[in-house]
Amino acid sequence: MKKLLLAVVLVAVGLLIYRQVTRKSLPSLSSSEGVRIISLSPTLTEVLFELGEGERIVGVTNYCTFPLEARAKAKVGDLVNPDLERIAQLQPTIIFAEQWSSTKIVSRLRNLGLKVTEVPSPRSIEEIYRLIESVGEQVGKAGRAREIVSDMSARILAVKEKAARFEHHPTIYIEIDIPSWSVGRASYTHEAVTLCGARNLLEDVDKPALLVSQEIIIQRNPEVILSFEASAEQIRKRPGWGVISAVQRGWIIDHFNRDLLSRGNFRLVQGMEDFQSRLESLLKKKARSSP
Amino acid sequence: MKNNPASTLKSKQRLLWLWLATVAIAIIALFLGPAGIPDRNILLAVRLPRVLLGLLVGMGLAGSGTVFQGVLRNPLADPFILGTSSAATAGVMLANLTGIRNFYLLYFMALGFALLSITIVYQISRIDGKSPIQTMVLAGVIVSLFFNALVFIVFSILYRESFNVLFFLLGTLTGGDPMLIVLSAILILLGFGASWLLSRELNILTQGEETAFHLGVDVETIKKILFVAASAMTRAAVAVAGMIGFVGLIVPHMMRMIVGPDHRYLIPASALGGAILLIVTDALARTLAPPLEIPVGALTALLGAPYFVYLLRQRQRAGEF
Question: In chain A, whose CA is at the least distance from the CA of B160?
Fold first, then answer.
């Protein structure tokens, strides 16, 4: 028993040493003087890159996969489970985090003497603008931030104008995850889809996200289904869903890049344009088939 | 055991009433839901499968709870408390992690984990052929902590799917691959049938293993069969509904008060009682905050945890602890 215990401890220590040795060596501090940024949220990482701060980022979360350059940065865990040692070691001059009421991590980082800027998680497009502007101000790129915001609002205006020309604004069930997770009106995903010319089936629910009863979806009978996870085929096969208008007409938009409609930053506009063009082609099909 | 209602006739009568109550509640539940009075499609395609699943899962969980309590001669035994459900879940998660996609392999891997965990708990807590309450519960807590830790390690690695996995951990009757439901139904019915067939032997076992041995019961074999039957029922229930706790604990106790401790009546009564409890809590889960679903496992835990404390305190007062 003692020998076994000893063996286990030795293997564990060996693994740790191996990990330590093989760990990516840190960029030397002298080479990048000045601002050193760590981002604790994929949304913020994308905003920082868009602001042209990519060079100054020294650490990102494990889930920051966009843009491609973000994948090459040092990984510091995530906001729930950050690697405090790694963060301290990277000697950031500023850390960006989304505000989460449930985590004490920000105060722990501050206790380490680190400067943390918390940005509230956006729930609407207006709040996304404010997020981009406040990050811009923090890194001294207020001008670039304003450019991004005005570009976004111009493109959103175009989306709105296009939506206004739709003869019909179909109801839509937005499934962000299986089995039936959807969004209520307290989310920018709801706002984005609405601006594109569809009406959220669950606009009466004042919540960002919810698991909705399947019978409610069947009863409310959406004309369109937008699915981030399940394929159209899987949705068709669900018991009782055959009667839904979207299923009968085949108006199911699947294989949609979820990040485009669920990151609170400039990429949302891309998502809106993509979604709107797919929605439009569905509506056109209808116009052709029923003269 | 107190509250023992006397005659066999009475137990039989009460069992019949339970049958009727189960059928009545199942029918009523069909008409409860956020969509109000359902049309044919919602009734047959959404509500009916949920009610049937509730029946099946409740039966499996309460059935396995009854068997565990009987074999271990421990009133606090429950697949949730003993770590059997955690182990089965850990099995599923590990299979996910290793990329095992073969349906049957996945299923029986979880069953293997469930059996492993109950064996461990039993071995840790056994003293002179008996499993005293304290050591049993402690062993269960330790084993389920261990398997929960495994579950959460895998959980943090599989971050991408975690939203869903979390919901699975809380228990739900909403999802369901028909294949999985059929396989689980077969397992639950087999486990239930085997337990019921062995209910006389189980009665003798609860008198103590030595007595049982002297009465000519092949104690070890019977115990093994019952463990496998109970683990299979737990596993099957977890496979279709996730971790729904405490049903296996509460129901056998309530049923013991109603039909008495004789397992010939207690096992079917618990199966019915479990079905009633789950059908009712699932109806609550979908009607309390429409159009939202509340995880049904959270509701049963809400009911079960205080009941567990109550049981513990009662036994302390009775000096049985």
Answer: A63
Task: State the helix-helix crossing angle for B103-125 and B178-197, rounded to 10 degrees.
Answer: 40
**Interchain proximity B167–A205, CB inside 8 Å:** no
Angle between helical axes of B84-97 and B103-125 (0-180°, round to 10) = 140
Look at chain A and count its residues: 291
List beta partners, residue A177: A181
CB contact under 8 Å between A213 and B33, yes or no, is yes
Can you tell me the distance from the alpha carbon of A243 to that of A212, in angstroms, rounded to the nearest whole number?
18
Residue with tokens 């056109």: A284
Query: CA–CA separation, B316 vs B321, rounded Å?
Result: 5
The whole-model pTM stands at: 0.80
pLDDT at B100: 62
Q: Which of A78, A202, A213, A217 to mutate to test the interface with B (most CBs of B within 10 A)?
A: A213
Position A182: which residue type? S
If you measure CA to CA, which chain B residue comes closest to A202? B291
The residue among B292, B118, B94, B156 whose CA lies nearest residue A182 is B292
A 230-269 residues with CB below 8 A of B?
Answer: 239-243
In this structure, of A184-193, A219-228, A238-247, B120-129, the range with the lowest mean pLDDT score is: B120-129
Grouping H, G, I as helix, E, B as strand and the rest as coil, residue A166 is coil
Mutation site for B-interface testing, chosen from A75, A81, A214 by largest number of B Cβ within 10 Å: A214
DSSP-derived secondary structure for A45-106: HHHHHHTT-GGGEEEE-TT---SGGGGGSEE-B-SSSB-HHHHHHT--SEEEEEE-TT--HH
For chain A, strand residue ranges (E) read 37-39, 57-60, 74-75, 94-99, 116-120, 171-175, 181-183, 199-200, 209-211, 224-227, 252-253
Structure tokens of B126?
């056994």
Using an 8 Å Cβ cutoff, are B274 and B62 in contact?
Answer: yes
Partners of A95 in the β-ladder: A38, A116
Please indicate whether, in this complex, the C-beta atoms of B292 and A181 are within 8 angstroms of each other. Answer: no
Distance CA B76, CA B65 (A): 9
Contact at CB, A181 and B163, closer than 8 angstroms: yes
Identify the closest residue of chain B to A176 by CA–CA distance.
B163
Of B35, B172, B292, the CB nearest to A210: B292
Q: What is the pLDDT of residues B239-259, one digit of tens each?
A: 788 778 888 888 998 898 889
Distance from CA of A193 to the nearest CA of B (A): 20
pLDDT value at position B193? 96
Q: Is B36 helix (H, G, I), strand (E, B) or coil?
A: coil
CA dihedral for A267, A271, A272, A274, sign (positive or negative): positive
CA distances from B178 to A163, B53, B85, B184, B240 (A): 41, 11, 21, 10, 10
DSSP letter assigned to residue A179:
T
